[in-house]
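Propose amino acids for all 98 sites.
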């Protein structure tokens, strides 16, 4: 029987270790993509919250799918990019860096 950890997960040690490894690799300079998928209620959101808590030193971008925007092309991409595009400090040229 799996034990419950202090994060409230039951039997998710493997998934948490995978998330920790991915984050450590990114901290080391590697890029990575990880897809978390599954049926409703299996704990995807809890794993995402765990990853976000472990990545407090990263810039985190979150979006939510909205059914009413389903027919709008690139609505999710717009939600993701709009806040970043408003932050002009991200787009400084190398010659203007301090």
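Proposal:
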């Amino acid at each position: 029987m799996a034990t419950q950890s202090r994060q409230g997960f039951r039997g998710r040690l493997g998934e948490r270790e995978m998330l920790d490894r991915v984050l450590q690799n990114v901290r080391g300079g590697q890029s990575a993509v990880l897809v978390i998928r599954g049926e409703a209620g299996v704990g995807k959101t809890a794993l995402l919250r765990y990853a976000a808590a472990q990545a407090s030193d990263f810039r985190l971008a979150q979006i939510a799918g909205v059914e009413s925007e389903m027919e709008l092309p690139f609505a999710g991409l717009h939600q993701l990019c709009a806040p970043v595009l408003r932050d002009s400090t991200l787009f400084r040229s190398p010659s203007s860096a301090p």
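The helical segments are 13-27, 44-54, 75-86. Residues 61-98 form one domain.
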